[in-house]
UniProtKB/TrEMBL annotation:
It comes from Nannocystis pusilla. Keywords: Disulfide bond, Repeat, Signal. PROSITE patterns: PROKAR_LIPOPROTEIN. This is DUF4215 domain-containing protein. NCBIfam families: myxo_disulf_rpt (TIGR02232). InterPro entries: Myxo_disulph_rpt. The keyword Disulfide bond applies. Residues 28-108, 306-334 are annotated as: Disordered. The keyword Repeat applies. Residues 320-334 have a biased composition (Polar residues). Residues 28-102 have a biased composition (Low complexity).
């Protein structure tokens, strides 16, 4: 067996060398760029020159042949990728908007259409309405310019200045308290606490304030029917009402100079005036118990009167006795 190996070895070695000379061994260079975003990939592959093997020389001894194959692989893969994702969480409502095509808006139809600022219909162009053409508002109270029926227009919202918010000049009775006014209740009632002249009601202003004054004649005369306290003059108020009362002492004493009814005390009024009258029977009979001079009559007059009034019975006897006595006295005196 060893002899057979020695006889075949040179042949086999030569065959192997020939087979190695027939193969080209190349160098492969692969270049690529990769970017990790799952996008574009660029790859470049470069193949070099074939490699030539060197034949081995056989000199009858076993020869070792070396073949080198160099392979270089470079991978450079560049990938550029841009991805934006937007996530919206919420409730999606179905679109129920219907789109219809209509004719362009017409100024004056009373509806504010596209391109119009306002539309007052037939009132376009009138005061406090929409201007013709529906492109802007017309003059109105508060725009700072006096127009139409305005008495003034100061363009502000201050209601107690010279021009009210309704574009009317401030006046007494407009309900707004202005400079120079004591009050302004917005009415013409002269019997409440604010007069139509925007003055506070008071006694002597000539207007009877309901529930407060009994009268108000607007003067300072205290002897007429309405006193200066705006009370009706009456007997006993201590003020003599001219042409009505003769006196007024303000009391209920009927024995002084001024009796009930605001009359001066007099004989015959039925009231005995203290220190002045002895009696006062209030009649015109002069031979009764009280003469018309409000003094008792003389004694003989009393007796004579009594006799005349009594003609029968004990009264007659009692009446004649004084008369007889008087007669006898006269006789004795003679």
């Amino acid at each position: 067996m060893t002899g057979w190996n020695r006889g075949i070895a040179p042949w086999a070695l030569g065959l192997w060398v020939v087979a190695g000379c027939g193969d080209d061994v190349g160098t492969t260079d692969t270049t690529g760029e990769v970017s990790a975003s799952g996008g574009e990939t660029t790859s470049t592959t470069t193949s070099g020159e074939p490699t030539t093997g060197v034949p081995t020389t056989t000199t009858g001894a076993p020869t070792t042949s070396t073949s080198e194959a160099t392979t270089t692989t470079t991978t450079d893969t560049t990938t550029t990728s841009t991805s934006e994702a937007t996530t919206t969480t919420g409730t999606t409502e179905p679109d129920t908007t219907s789109t219809s095509t209509t004719d362009p808006g017409l100024c004056g139809n009373g509806a504010v259409d596209d391109g119009e600022v306002c539309d007052d219909g037939v009132n376009d162009g009138a005061y406090d309405g929409c201007q013709p053409g529906c492109g802007a508002l017309g003059p109105f109270c508060g725009d700072g310019e006096q127009n139409g029926p305005e008495g003034c227009d100061d363009g502000n919202e201050v209601d107690d200045d010279a021009c009210n918010n309704d574009c009317a000049p401030a006046t007494c009775g407009d309900g707004e308290l202005q400079r120079g006014e004591e009050c302004d209740d917005g009415n013409m009632d002269e019997t409440d606490d604010c007069l139509a002249t925007c003055k506070s009601a008071s006694c002597g202003d000539g207007s009877v304030q309901a529930g407060v004054e009994a009268c108000d004649d607007g003067n300072d005369l205290d002897t007429d029917a309405c006193l200066n306290a705006c009370k009706v003059a009456v007997c006993g108020d201590s003020i003599v009402q001219e042409g009505v009362e003769a006196c007024d002492d303000g009391d209920d004493d009927d024995t002084d100079a001024c009796v009930a009814g605001c009359k001066e005390a007099a004989c015959g009024d039925g009231h005995v005036q203290a220190g002045v009258e002895t009696c006062d029977d209030g009649n015109d009979v002069d031979n009764d118990g009280c003469s018309n001079a409000c003094v008792p009559p003389p004694v003989d007059v009393l007796f004579t009167s009594a006799a005349r009034r009594s003609r029968t019975g004990p009264a007659r006897r009692s009446a004649t006795r004084p008369t007889a006595t008087v007669t006898s006295c006269r006789a004795r005196s003679r």
